[in-house]
Amino acid sequence: MANLVITIDGPAASGKSTVARLLAERLGASFLDTGAMYRAVTLAAIEAGVDMGDEEKLLGVLETSEFQFAVKEGKMAVSIDGVDVTERIRGPEVTAKARHIASAAKLREKLVRMQRRFAAGEEKIVTEGRDQGTVAFSDADVKFYLTADAGERARRRRAELRTKGGGEPRPSDGLGESLEQIQKAIEERDKSDEDRAVGPLRPADDAIIIDTTDLGIEEVVEKVLRRVKEKCLKRNQK
Ligand code: DC
Question: Is 221 touching ligand 1 by the criterion CB < 6 Å?
Fold first, then answer.
């Protein structure tokens, strides 16, 4: 088990990936983007032509493909059977279909085990997702839950899409969508994350909740860093 485990959970586009990455950098910790794991299995299932409602077949995909997750240049690099899919797992089809993997109980169990194994090999880790503080690392040292109102999250997602797409809209990349459409998709993802029976999105009882609606990334990182230092100081004094 790592010496320091920090979990960051929250809804889509709440800024948790960026905050987790920057926090890990400042603490000299490793980081784990667990959404990338759900996305990778989704992509493998799409490529294998598996029915997204068939949990046994989905489990077969997870068992027969070789997934690799590694931090490279501060980013979560993902490969399936030796092929780098880091960019492809961010595509709109994967984003839309990942909820099937996220609500399959047996798959979640396996992915949580993989997450714990990953953390066990690290000295310090910042791990982000939906259930990191509630399920995967319920005894984490410090837990955060980041949130922001859906309108603000839609604006952030649009800015991210524009940066990634180099400002050139293509029908398949979500760039042609209006802000209202992006917000609607985000709200649908929230609902599916919150309503699933296994690993639903919710703050852990002992999580520090931060509403980032009116905060810039740097302000959030500073806040988080301050709370980590306070908590660790208290822990060391015990
Ligand atoms: O954070 P993200 O958008 O990359 O997540 C991709 C999908 O995986 C999304 O449908 C939520 C799901 N997910 C999850 O169920 N549990 C996690 N710990 C992380 C992500």
Answer: no
Determine the residue of 8, 34, 108, 131 to mutate for testing ligand 1's pocket, defined as the one with the most ligand atoms within 8 A of the Cβ atom. Answer: 34
The answer, yes or no, to whether any atom of ligand 1 lies below 6 A from the CB of 193, is yes
Token pair listed for 81: 């059977």
Which is nearest to 112 in space by CA: 42, 38, 50?
38
Residue 169 banded pLDDT, cuts 50, 70, 90: very low
- What is the Cα gyration radius of the chain? 17
Give the count of beta carbons closer than 10 Å to the beta carbon of residue 178. Answer: 10
Using CA positions, which residue lies closest to atom 5 of ligand 1?
35
Average pLDDT, integer, range 162-185: 69
pLDDT digits (tens, 9 = 90+) for 21-32: 999 999 999 999
Q: What is the pLDDT, as a whole number, of residue 107?
A: 96
pLDDT of residue 185: 92
Strand-by-strand arrangement of the 75-80 sheet? 67-72, 75-80, 83-84
pLDDT digits (tens, 9 = 90+) for 107-153: 999 999 999 999 999 999 999 999 999 999 999 999 999 999 999 99
**Residue 25: alpha-carbon gap to chain centroid:** 17
Which CATH number is 4-211's, of 3.40.50.300, 3.40.228.10, 3.60.130.10, 3.40.640.10? 3.40.50.300
* Sheet with 30-33: strands ordered across: 30-33, 124-129, 4-9, 142-147, 208-211
All structural domains of the chain with their residue ranges: 4-211
Tell me the CA–centroid distance for residue 130 and ligand 1, in Å. 6
At 169, list the tokens: 């809209």
